[in-house]
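=== Discrete structure encoding ===
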Amino acid sequence: MIQNKQVTIIDHPVVARDITILRDKNTRTDEFRMALGRIAIILAYFALRDLPLRQTAIETPITKTTGFEIDTDIVVIPILRAGLSLVDAITDFVPDAKVGHLGMYRDETTHKPVDYYSNLPPGLDTAMTLVVDPMLATGGSADDAITFLKKQGAKNIRFISLISAPEGLERISIKYPDVTIITAAVDEKLNDDAFIVPGLGDAGDRYFGTS
């Protein structure tokens, strides 16, 4: 794991292997989903590793002892539709997490995000809010999502991505110094069509089999 104050880049052999599977244009949809799912579990682990805990009294079959419960609400906000691919890994760790949705798509001409849907649970002002999207490219969708969530009261926001471009990382890091970013890889750059290079193509299309 490579980490600075704001950005955590996961350095792990399983992640390196599975990102290779995701990048390969010949990878089948089922293989793509499984590889992304394995990486999502690792991303979720690092995103949740410093959750606050509160003590609780329990009784084992042998004796009374002290246990722990998570001491914050967790809200997962996938940016539709590709962000849905990262949700299950987080809710497997925290089954009572609330899940909201933000719908955005990229205008193919302007390369800017277009908002079309939002449905958020209450309690953003006190929850840990995890915004998830496999690709952090220009940072436009992430920027819009974070701005919108802050207006709805979210204060503790973390952004989780599979692959990030330097341009997107810089944009979010500079504009939102209070937002932690967890990513599995940082690629070289964006091309003229604002796709990440080398990237893996359209994560949503490949995950849902619509490419």
Summary: Residues 41 and 66 are 28 Å apart (CA to CA). The mean pLDDT is 93.
